[in-house]
Every structure is written in C-alpha cells, then in structure tokens.
Design goal:
The chain has eight helices and 15 strands. It is of the alpha/beta class. It folds into two domains: about 10-50 and about 190-260, HAD superfamily/HAD-like (Rossmann fold, 3-Layer(aba) Sandwich); about 80-190, HAD superfamily/HAD-like (Rossmann fold).
C-alpha cells in the first residue's frame, strides 16, 4: 500500500533515470504529475549524479520526451562541482580526472587546469572512461609527493547501471584508486547522497528544505540525501528500490508505486443528504 503525501509542497525535486523516465520513455504518471505541479506555479527541479552529460542534454531529453524543460531546472554533478568550487575555491588550480563535459565546463567557468603536480590545488575524481595510469601518477604526485592538493569527487557512485543488468565502474572507483596509493581521503563528494547537491539546487529558490519534496528511486542516494538535508522524501518503486528495501533508517519516507502518488489525493466531493 502506498504511503503518500497529504499536502502540496512549495517546490519539487526529482531524480531522473528510474524516477521520471527509463531509457527513452517517461514512466507512468510522470508527465501528468509534473504538469500538475507546474500548473500550480510551483518550481520543479531535476537532479542527476551523471557528470558525463551536460544539464542541457538532460533538458533536451526531457523536452523530447514531452516535458519541455529549461536548462536552469536541471542540476547534475557538473553543476554542483562548479557551484562548490566557485563558492569555496574560486582561484584553485584543478586537475580533473573526468570526461569532456566537466572539463569543458571548468574551462568555460574560468578555472585554471593543470597536469603539473607542483601547481595543482584540487584533484577532482569523476566518472572517466579514459582513466589512465598517467592520471593516477599525476594525482599521486600532487597529493602524496607535493602534499599541496586536496581530493574531491563529483559523485560517490560505485557503478553506473546499464540496461540488462550490466554496468560500468563509476567515480567511486577512480576515487578509491587515488586513495589507495596516496592514503589521502576524499574530502568532499558533490553528488547524491551529499546534502551539498540539494544546497546547490535550493540556493536559487526561496523555499525552506522542510517545504520541498525530494522524489527518487534509490534509497541510499536520493532518499538519504533528502533525510540528511532535512527535506521530506518519497521513494518511487519504478527503478532501483523495492518495498522490501525500506528499513528503519528511512522512517518517515513516503512510499509510492508511481509518480502520480506523490500528489495529495483530491478531496472527496460533498454529497447532499
């Protein structure tokens, strides 16, 4: 039985894959739900831990699937990494172990990138399918030999799931390789379940965390992030998590079978006696 919200919230935040769509199709109830929220003039934001696609790519996909979405409504770990660096380390010299979308975004934002370990302030571990031993050596020298850099990661995912039950090693694998050889711990993670991601999303909204609802299909990322940020959360059983996965540590989380159940049920009509 669904455990659904009984009120409207002032803002709605959604995970994407497994929550709003699966592959190239919107999931049941997604279009009607998001259109109903927008019809009330309430802000909708979308989140993804994937740093290999730009926010514009996600906005284009949602639009193509029938949910016209401006790029400003999409936040992924490219967005949060830029936000965190601009906020806390605006003049840092960076060594990103990452794919082109993140590297390009860092350059466009005006950051200095370097592969000279003596100049690197921050090593960024990310999802990088071209990860090479040279990258590991540069990170090792910056962190272990010169002892001047810190290590951060775009997201803590161990693997990226693929259709058919397959997957690829994700950013956590890159982070683990660097930590193993340097014995330097990653200081900051900028993707779910880090509450920093929700801070970046909510920074542009005049809405308290308690008055927004986070909905996702993964308990350990989407819902853990919401709970740690003081935001109500709803797990939808259309992706990674199933009802039997909900343990005591997720007490208070709404549980729904489809996205339309995150909206309060219409009041029963009054009948004359």
């Amino acid at each position: 039985m669904a455990i659904r919200p009984t009120r409207w919230y002032d803002a709605y935040v959604f995970d994407l894959d497994g929550t709003v769509y699966l592959g190239e199709a919107l999931l049941p109830g997604a279009k009607a739900t998001i259109e109903a929220i927008r019809a009330r003039g309430l802000p909708v934001r979308f989140l993804s831990n994937n740093p290999t696609r730009t926010p514009q790519m996600y906005a284009d996909k949602l639009t193509r699937l029938g949910l016209p979405t401006p790029v400003e409504d999409v936040t992924n770990t490219i967005t949060t990494t830029l936000w965190w660096l601009k906020t806390y380390h605006p003049t840092a010299t960076l060594f990103p172990i990452a794919e082109a979308p993140l590297v390009d975004a860092l350059r466009q934002a005006g950051f200095t990138l370097s592969d000279d370990p003596s100049q690197i302030d921050i090593v960024i571990a990310s999802y990088d399918r071209q990860f090479a031993y040279r990258d590991l050596q540069i990170a090792f020298d910056a962190l272990w030999f010169h002892r001047r850099a810190i290590l951060i990661q775009t997201n803590p995912d161990r693997y990226c799931p693929f259709p058919g039950g397959r997957g690829q090693p994700d950013a956590a694998a890159i982070t683990a390789a660097i930590e193993a050889c340097t014995q330097v711990r990653c200081e900051v993670s900028l993707g779910k379940p880090s509450p920093l991601m929700l801070q970046a999303v909510m920074a542009g909204l005049d809405v308290a965390p308690a008055d927004a609802l986070m909905t996702g299909d993964r308990l350990w990322t989407d819902l853990r992030m919401a709970l740690d940020a003081g935001m109500p959360g709803a797990v939808v059983f259309t992706g990674d998590s199933q009802p039997g996965d909900v343990t005591a540590q997720y007490d208070g989380v709404f549980q729904v079978d489809s996205l339309d159940q995150i909206l309060p049920e219409p009041a029963s009509p009054c009948h004359p006696v």
